[in-house]
Amino acid sequence: MGDTYPLVPNRISEFEIEFKTSEVKFENGWEQRSANWDEGQEGFTLEHYFLGKEEADILSSFFREKRGKFRKFYFKNYIDGKTYQVRFAEDKLHFEPLKARFFSTKVKLVKAC
């Protein structure tokens, strides 16, 4: 199927940056923190509305091909025009059925390390 996200989303609803920090609290009140990631992990949430069965099948096949969050692929962000190497953030893909054989879904992607 390829290494590029197969659909153009209706909306990119979220852009986030996440850091991983470990924190230890001692009995005397002191705290110690350590940064587990040197750089924040960036991610996108894509929203698809009124997908037809064919489009839902394309996305479902692509998700299966990538085995959820296991394999990397490319996503072209139509807002900034850049192409990012990403992976699915979750191992689960959910479609919400709408009227007249249409579906909607939200897909979260994270930048691949």
What does this structure look like?
- With 113 residues, the chain is mainly beta.
- Strands 1, 4, 5, 6, 7 and 8 form a six-stranded antiparallel sheet that branches. Strands 2-3 form a two-stranded antiparallel sheet.
- A hairpin with a 6-residue loop joins strand 5 and strand 6.
- It is built from one helix and eight strands, in the order E-E-E-E-H-E-E-E-E.
Give the number of DSSP strands: 8
Summed over residues and divided by their number, the pLDDT gives a mean of: 92
User: What's the number of structural domains?
Assistant: 1
Shape: elongated
- How many helices in DSSP terms? 1
Ranges where pLDDT stays below 50 over 5 or more residues in a row are none
> How would a textbook summarize the main sheet?
6 strands, antiparallel
In terms of DSSP E residues, the strand content is: over 45%
Class from secondary-structure proportions = mainly beta
The H/E string reads EEEEHEEEE
Q: C-alpha Rg, in Å? A: 18 Å
Helical coverage, percent range:
10-25%
First and last CA, distance:
22 Å
Topology:
Blueprint: E1 11-18, E2 21-25, E3 31-35, E4 41-51, H1 53-65, E5 73-76, E6 83-88, E7 96-98, E8 102-111
